Amino acid sequence: MSRIFSGIQPSGELHIGNYLGAVKNYAELQRSYESFFCIVDYHAITIPYEPEDLRARTREMMVSLLAAGLDPSTSTIFVQSMVPQHTELAWIFNSVTPLGELERQTQYKDKASRMESVPAGILNYPILQAADILLYRADLVPVGEDQVQHLELSREIARRWNARFGAEFFPEPQAKLTPARRIMGLDGNAKMSKSMGNTVGLLEPPDSVWEKLRPAVTDPARVRRTDPGTPEVCNIYHLHRAFSPPDVVANVETQCRTAGWGCIECKKVLFEHMNKELAPIRARSVEIRARPEIVDQVIGDGAATARRVASETMREVKERMGLV
Ligand code: AQP
Q1: Which of 146, 150, 202, 235 to mutate to test the pocket of ligand 1 (most atoms within 8 A of CB)?
Q2: In this structure, how many other beta carbons lie within 10 angstroms of the beta carbon of residue 33?
Q3: How many angstroms separate the alpha carbon of residue 28 from the centre of ligand 1?
Q4: Angle subtended at Cα 49 by Cα 46 and Cα 52, rounded to the nearest 5 degrees
Q5: Ligand 1: distance of its center to the CA of 237 in Å?
Q6: pTM for this one?
Q7: pLDDT tens, 156-204?
Q8: Per-residue pLDDT at 295
Q9: Cα–Cα distances in Å, from 48 out to 43, 44, 79, 117, 295?
Q10: What are the residue ranges of CATH 1.10.240.10 in the chain?
Q11: CATH architecture of residue range(s) 3-183+292-321
Q12: Of 244, 183, 178, 240, nearest to 15 (Cα)?
């Protein structure tokens, strides 16, 4: 059975971009693949944070993942810092990764351009990410489009290590994208992203979701209610494609092109369908939060399974590298 690995940072709440671009796919794929899903807290410490917040967000991320349908009876769901082999393998990969490749990463350039002093962890992030994936020798990585370049680097690292120490030991992991591979923020300017503050939380109460949806940017050509629009350029249309059934999406297209609906009507229909999908997830999160022992058990069991697989990989890696 092929293996999948994917990680998610506890740097903020799980948002609908994370959900549509990655987590919804996890819930599907876990039925067909041996799955490892990781809350990557070591990645989250590369930006300023408060220790107590991080602890709380890590736990809350676990609640959100379980509420979104990850099943600990078939998948290994765990916290990165509880499995020390991640950082061990990352150090090893430091020795085969060219600096120039790291400096070329778009996400590094974006983040570094917004910082006064850039921690080395921001540059080395893709090395730890390669270690996360390859520690489990995963073939497939369900991610959003923003991670495709990093994955290319993971493949390069696998190739370089294999060429030097052990042909074919690490597979070259491939990205597994969803149709909603890149969800834009409601400002329409940039991808929905925790660090941009333009997110809609997966567990956000409906009133607050509507508060954000109502003023969200639509097709700029629709200045007046009677102006026809082009659905493909409208973020709300793309959210319809993610949340609404096909007949509703087809109707949205017609109503937009013919100015049959105003943008507010279109958003109301979207809100209704978002709610249909998100209400059961919100309800499950309340049940899970009320039973902290379940969360503790998933965290403990996940770490134990992950450590077992990870230490087996590290044993072979060290053996092949002449490390005692
Ligand atoms: N807007 C998005 N559309 C589709 N997929 C997305 N992902 C993130 N944003 C979008 C995917 O969600 C998974 C987990 O993301 P992450 O938390 O590990 O990393 P991220 O990409 O850094 O998420 P953010 O919200 O954008 O955080 P910041 O602002 O800290 O960079 C990944 O598979 C990602 O592709």
Answers
A1: 146
A2: 21
A3: 18
A4: 130
A5: 21
A6: 0.94
A7: 999 999 999 988 899 999 999 988 889 999 988 889 988 788 999 999 9
A8: 97
A9: 11, 9, 19, 11, 26
A10: 204-286
A11: 3-Layer(aba) Sandwich (3.40)
A12: 183
Given this model, what pLDDT does residue 167 score?
83
Q: Which of 11, 18, 29 to mutate to test the pocket of ligand 1 (most atoms within 8 A of CB)?
A: 18
Any atom of ligand 1 within 6 Å of the Cβ of 193? yes
Q: Do 228 and 259 touch, CB atoms closer than 8 A?
A: yes
With tokens 């999908």, the residue in question is: 277
Q: Domain 204-286 - what CATH class?
A: mainly alpha
Tokens of 80: 């990165």
Largest CA distance in the chain: 74
Q: Please report which helix (H) or strand (E) contains residue 7, including its range.
A: strand 3-8
CB 17 near ligand 1, within 6 Å = yes
Distance, first Cα to last Cα, the chain = 32
Q: Which residues of the chain, if any, have pLDDT below 50? A: none
- Render pLDDT for 279-318 as a digit per residue (tens, 0 to 9): 999 999 999 999 999 999 999 999 999 999 999 999 999 9
Amino acid at 187: D
Which of 123, 139, 233 shows the shortest CA–CA distance to 188? 233
Please list the residue range(s) of the chain that carry CATH number 3.40.50.620.
3-183+292-321
CB 38 less than 6 A from any atom of ligand 1: no
Residues with a catalytic annotation lie at 111, 191, 194
pLDDT, residue 1, reads 72
Q: Which atom of ligand 1 is nearest to the CA of 142?
A: 33
Indicate the burial class of 292 (C-beta count within 10 angstroms; 0-12, 13-18, 19 or more): exposed
